[in-house]
Amino acid sequence: MFNFFKPKFNIRTKRLENSLTIVANINGKKISSMKCVVEEKAILIGDIEPFRNHKDFNKGYGTMMMNELLSYAKQNNINEVYGYLSDVDIDHKERLLHFYTKFGFEIKLYDVMIDCNFGEIRILI
After folding, report:
1. Total number of domains constituting the chain
2. Does 1 fall in a domain?
3. Distance of CA 103 to the CA centre of its chain
């Protein structure tokens, strides 16, 4: 029997000058995105837009977007991906730390907030 209602998931990568956006879609509708800045030999993760619907949590979509970002970096000879842990995400800090740890990011937590950030992440590729 056919399952006509199975959601179709895809990821699109868009590059415009030094801006890189990875968009996760279900049935053609954006559910989340990752906005980055491409530097000469590094990518800065600027913002990961949260999933619009809580039912999309813990389904691996964020993992697929991160895999796409790391793959993009490798294919384009970019040897570092880094970012900052913002205080707007502090309510789900443990989930965030687990997410970056599973990809091998080095995590440095600050003793005090610096520019509204409580830490930074970095991975060498």
Report:
1. 1
2. no
3. 11
DSSP string over the chain: ---TTPPPEEEEEEEETTEEEEEEEETTEEEEEEEEEE-SSEEEEEEEEPPSSGGGTTSSHHHHHHHHHHHHHHHTT--EEEEEEEGGGGGGHHHHHHHHHHTT-EEEEEEEEETTEEEEEEEE-
Q: Are strands 117-124 and 42-49 parallel, antiparallel or unpaired?
A: unpaired
**45-97, pLDDT tens digit by residue?**
999 887 665 565 677 888 999 999 999 999 999 999 999 999 998 888 999 99
How far does the chain reach from its first CA to its final CA, in angstroms?
A: 44
This model's pTM is above 0.85: yes
CATH number, position 89: 3.40.630.30
